[in-house]
Amino acid sequence: PGAFGTAAAVSASSLEVQNTSGQTTVNFTASTTFTNTTSGTLADVTVGSCVVVTAKSGGNQPASLTASSVAITPASANGCTAGGFGGGGGFGGGAGRPSGAPRPSNRPRPTGVPSTNPANFGRAFGSVTAVSASGFTVHGVARGSTPAGDTTVTVGSTTTYTKTGSATSSALAVGECIAALGPADDTGAITARSIAISKAGPNGCTAGFGGGGFGGGRFRGGSNGQGGTGGGNG
After folding, report:
1. How many CB atoms within 10 Å of residue 66?
2. Does 183 have pLDDT greater than 70?
3. N or C: at which end does the chain have fewer Cβ atoms within 10 angstroms?
4. Does an H or E element contain 51, and which?
């Protein structure tokens, strides 16, 4: 239902998306929605924003974590909702999709989000309730019979940040990673309902639909997309 890869050419109403399988024309219209994932800093973590935090250890939604990476999105009208941790997967195979962001089958994984899932991999997802110079507090999302809890997140000089927000077609550029969702016509060209843009990782844009989420998992929920799987980007 879409195309993922590197933008090889961009025009006023379409772009060419290239990956190892070939090249796909993606058309966009005034009704196409755009999001752009860019580098961020701790200053972009604000009270009320949704975050996905990954760490080298700690498990799911623990009392405390030392963050390796932080992905930030604005909350939707329903706050921060997630498809679940662990088997549900997401950033690094663990977390849920931040509300307000398109599902990761629509976009590559931001640089800095790990693509492996060590046995004690740490992760936390939820709404930021407090921010300090050394980190922030995340109020998690209840999952099944597991109630929502708080995680104190400590950040350091090696912590990486990405932020996702609304964009327009002016953000499209050759070399960017593109994930477009929409139906294909008889020629294989896509008419995009949504296009997600992000920077290429060290290995370029290396993901695909059904590959397992934003870095090896899957996201669900939020206001811009329901359910879905996708690949991980280096």
Report:
1. 18
2. yes
3. N
4. strand 50-55
| Rounded CA separation 177/165 (Å) | 15
Q: Which residues lie closer than 8 Å to 26 by C-beta, 6 or more apart?
A: 3, 14, 15, 16, 17, 178, 180, 182, 189, 190, 192, 195
The first and second tokens of residue 160, run together, are 């990486």
b/e per residue, 139-153, with b = 16+ CB within 10 A? bbbebeeeeeeebbb
Which residues have a Cβ under 8 Å from the Cβ of 7 and sit 6 or more positions away?
15, 16, 17, 18, 172, 173, 174, 175, 176, 177, 178
Single-letter code of the amino acid located at 29: T
Rounded to whole angstroms, the Cα distance separating 160 from 91 reads 13
Enumerate the β-bridge partners of residue 152. 64, 137
Instruction: Specify the pairing of strand 190-191 against strand 22-27.
Output: parallel
- Give the phi and the psi of residue 137 in degrees, each rounded to 5: -115, 135
Residue 70's DSSP bridge partners are 53, 161
Q: What is the pTM of this model?
A: 0.70
Q: What is the pLDDT of residue 77?
A: 86
> Mean pLDDT throughout 88-106?
36
